[in-house]
Description:
Structural class: alpha/beta
Helix content: 25-40%
Strand content: 5-15%
Order of helices and strands: HHHEEHHEHHEHEEHE
Amino acid sequence: MVYNCINNILSLIYPDYCQLCSAPATDGICAGCWQELPHNSHGCRQCGLPLTTNRAAVCGHCLRHPPAVDCSLIPFLYTTPIDRLIGQFKFSAKLPHGRLLSRLLRVHLEQYATMPDLLIPVPLHPSRLRQRGYNQALELARPLSRHFGIPLDFRSCRRILHTQPQSELKKRQRKRNIHGAFQVTGPLPATHVALVDDVVTTGSTVNELARHLKRAGIARVDVWAVARTP
């Protein structure tokens, strides 16, 4: 009761504003901005690539070259304003944007996800982690772990190669760049895991990590990410 009263008083003194347009909002986004977000309504079931058909479809590339990832749940396209929110969260330490993005992802997962045994944020190389000060994938994963009651493992997978940023490379270069970049350090107490990340571009990073996880005995690897590059 006291906690609720304090929350009500604080909401009057510090009302919640939309992080996109500054209008009054609930949980960081107003209804108008929510409607205008670039929803990935028909993403490929395996890689999240936006399609023109229904949600259960698999794209031609995944049919010809089945990825190690079994299912991708990616609610938005990496365009305005999602790209701006992610960029400021990732490179300018605007952590409130990360909390908003995690909530937006959670809404999608509540509707479509089969819950895994374990959440694994895509790891950063130690040098990049020192440079940035935090792993954006881990910051997205923490609220999801608490909300769904799923254990969070950020120690069993390591990034052992300091690779060139994927965003600077073309599609074919990305796959070569990320090859051998990850290591699974030991057996995991799970058969079904979900990798958490901010953006999936070509899928090379999550697919490489999924490949290592399956070699370590994981039967199913899903991807939970905020946005997919069109």
